[in-house]
Amino acid sequence: MLVDSHCHLDFVPTEERAGVIARARRAGVTTLLTISTKLSEFPAVRAIAESDPDIWCSVGIHPHEAAAEEGGDADRLTALARHHKVVGIGESGLDFHYDHSPRAEQVAAFRRHARAARTAAMPLIVHSRNADPETVAVLEEEGVSAGVIHCFSTGNLLAERALGLGLYISLSGIVTFKNADALRGIVRDLPLDRLLVETDAPYLAPVPLRGKPNEPAFIVHTANFIAALKGVAPDEFARRTTENFFRLFAKAKRPGAERQKPSGSDAP
Fold it and tell me: Which CATH number covers residue 191?
């Protein structure tokens, strides 16, 4: 059993989504976390999670959208997070590579998400690109102690400081790329009990499928690659990363568990 801890099912054409989910299940990927990037599109993300007992979602605003999206104050995020299918806040963070939103607005939005995650007692899903020192500063200053660095692909600074705060590290298909030797060197030393695995689908398909639209079923290639890199049997790696996911995203229910919607759990 594997978990795709970060994918974007709302980016998949509606007519193709059932097939994508079915292929994931056939590949042994039994739980999916579909990630919010815009509050304006959150209802669609939430509806996908509501459609399947083993799909969960987050609520948040991607740093690319920090300037354009409204309603991302901490109180609103906290209210939306009460929905029974929402298990995390984000993805939020800093992207100083593309700078699609002004950096000051990205930082302000990131801080609001961090505060909402604390208030809601939920993990913060962190995006960081070309902004490791600034990301660390916000995490430390806001007292973030539960969360995940999604699609980790940078350096030791972010990995060590995030782990020191109690966060997890999520690895994507990037670790399989030919030019990722430096990343692989870091991954070898990361503690197995703090690792998650993800696709970030439909992006970043792993070798040997690089160049194709990614989907959750392809996580098997990434998981097996990391297992070999760390000298762990694939089944053991799958078991450990699945345990890590449900430890971090404690609101998510395991496949087959009784799923009763809590009374009064939905946000307005």
Answer: 3.20.20.140
